[in-house]
Fold these 2 entries.
Entry 1:
Amino acid sequence: MIYVIFYIKCQIYICCTLKQKQMKVSLKLLTLFTTLILFSCGGSDKKEESSYGKKAPIKTEKKEPASERIELSNKGVGPITSLDLGLVVDQDMAAHGKEIYGKMCTACHKADKKFIGPSPNGILERRSPEWVMNMILNPEQMVKEDPLAKDLLMEFNGAPMANQGLTKEDARAVLEYFRTLN
């Protein structure tokens, strides 16, 4: 009888131990499957959006600002059709031009940076002398008819250059001063 009781207790113990092992294995498998499911559903951080009903983005070319564009063949619109600059800067004319520039132009132009209007620094590396002279002498017609002058007007928020009523000699002196700014 003791043997039977011992045998039954052993069977119960073995049975319980097997059930515990089965439960542990089942629990491990359940944990493994749950982990796999969570990771497979996670995906990346990128949000995928539906393109349904959305307009395609418009690609626009970034144009070089008119103030930085190089157009040496454009002579502009106005009375100056050709102009030869000497190889050496005429210092007396440049000094006179600096004086005129200081009185008439500095309200809108700074020699070393953009302001209300473009900087004249290095202007002759980007524009022909004729274009510069025509812009000084004839800004209204230049803004109406010259594509570059129109672009500059737009770049500088529609602020047109004022006609200062300079003579050709004064405008030429200002141009000579611009040659010293390079």
Entry 2:
Amino acid sequence: MSPVVGEINRIAGLLAGLGTVEEADEESVLVHVGTTRASVRVLDLAPELEVVSVTQLVGRAVTNDERLRDLIEERGAQLSFGSLRRSAPGDRHTDVLLAYAFPLGDLADVALLTVLHLVLAGGSALAADLA
């Protein structure tokens, strides 16, 4: 088993405490947290450099108006972990995504779960504001 597969299996086990986990492929899993879903992927960028990438769908086909732009700007500035973006900034409707990546390094389970929880909880809170 490759190191990436081993790490994504470890992450899937940790994420099970936060939501419903589905296997996506050898490098990623999908997790449903509240009304959101996120892809969590482990990327092997270079020798001894594995990165965890989280992309969370926090709003689907949201009306892309001034209120949304202001909310994303305001909430994005408040985030400690991740950045918010609209998938189609010029369209009438857009998806809202939270993205965050960090080096996996030697993070122990509790530390890794803490970072994942902070990121996903921030996206879940934003999803509630968009509803």
